[in-house]
TrEMBL record:
Alphabetical list of CDD domains matching this protein: GT9_LPS_heptosyltransferase
UniProt protein name: Lipopolysaccharide heptosyltransferase 1
Catalysed reactions listed for this entry: an alpha-Kdo-(2->4)-alpha-Kdo-(2->6)-lipid A + ADP-L-glycero-beta-D-manno-heptose = an L-alpha-D-Hep-(1->5)-[alpha-Kdo-(2->4)]-alpha-Kdo-(2->6)-lipid A + ADP + H(+)
GO biological process, one term: lipopolysaccharide core region biosynthetic process
Keywords: Cell inner membrane, Cell membrane, Glycosyltransferase, Lipopolysaccharide biosynthesis, Membrane, Transferase
The species this protein was found in: Paraburkholderia graminis (strain ATCC 700544 / DSM 17151 / LMG 18924 / NCIMB 13744 / C4D1M)
Similarity annotation: Belongs to the glycosyltransferase 9 family.
Amino acid sequence: MKRILIVKVTSLGDLVHGQPVVADLHRAFPGVKIDWAADASFADVPRWNAGIDRVLCAPLRGFKKNRSGAELKAIFTSISELRREKYDIVLDLQGVYKSAIISFLARSRRRLGYRSADLGESGAAFAYTGRFAPREDLNAWDGLRRTVADAFGYEVSGAPRFDLSIPRSADPSVKPEEQPYAMLFHATSSDVKKWPTAHWVAIGRSLVERGITPLLPWGSAREEQEAIAIAKEVRGSRILPRMSILQVAQYVDAATLIVGTDTGFVHLASALGKPTVMIFTATARRYFGVDVPGVSVSVGDDGRPPSVTEVLDAIASLEPLP
């Protein structure tokens, strides 16, 4: 086994979950080179993994939204780059049309994808020469690890190794504070995953009392308004400017504590070994929760949002904090 292509194009949390597969494949096949194909929006994640040789990316989301000539040209350029290497195996861990097309265009006689019943889009099946079944009895990253191990015929061993290293910022506008600070990821992609503003205010005030500055990131105008509402009630908190994925990751990497809902940056925090509390309100903690003793903990569950007390107790369990 000389070269493998992994296709997992979106989203942030899913790409984070997939990174331990890289270390597993290196253990199973010493000397193998691993490439990763991702949407340009999330390509930073595999770039942070030194175990990945090439990161192939195209502005798929951007072209779908804008239909610009520059983005179309970038997609054709990425196809040429994709076909520069020949692969022993292409592994599609996404299972939708766009990932299937990438898999099909890659130079390989073996292209593995999910069974038809497990595909995100059934039409993606055209691309594969072999099929595998996902392990649905485990959480997201262990499930992926064992799914890939089953497909390649090796055994999973040890704790997951994410091997992510966030580059230091060369941008003078990105200045993670020297004093202890906590990132409060209050924003989510879905309203049902939100936690009440009053609860965030209570957490923020508790952190300020301990000398920890709450920082409030956001990604849309609506999320900015939510951050403003929290900051008005938490003296000493600070609203961050709108930032790129890399810039937010740099703040996460330097943080004292991360508290947030089931979102990609909170999963990234746990993968980086940062003290992390993940709040569940409408997704299943069993499948998506983080739980590393002394490092990360999940509270709440699908249909059972946690109380402020539960979250504060979870923060206390990650001592020592300032």
